[in-house]
Amino acid sequence: MARVNSREKYLVEDDADRLMPLREVAARLATSVPSVRRIIAGNHLPVVRNGKRTYVRKVTLDGFLMELEGRDLADLITGDR
Fold it and tell me: Could you give the CA distance from residue 79 to residue 81 in angstroms, rounded to a whole number?
């Protein structure tokens, strides 16, 4: 049986809370980083900031996608609710 140190165990259990850079969020949404920034500016997607860097928690993005289901992402990007 392979031994798992406490740090590896923590990383596996905490993947849902992983911080995703905006380029990764854009790739998951199949859109551009500026579009993700517009969604954030419209207060549709909460972020975590670290200095000049902006991240989205994976669990937050998953919840956003569940709420978005059946709706058009373009409406959020253009401001048409």
Answer: 6
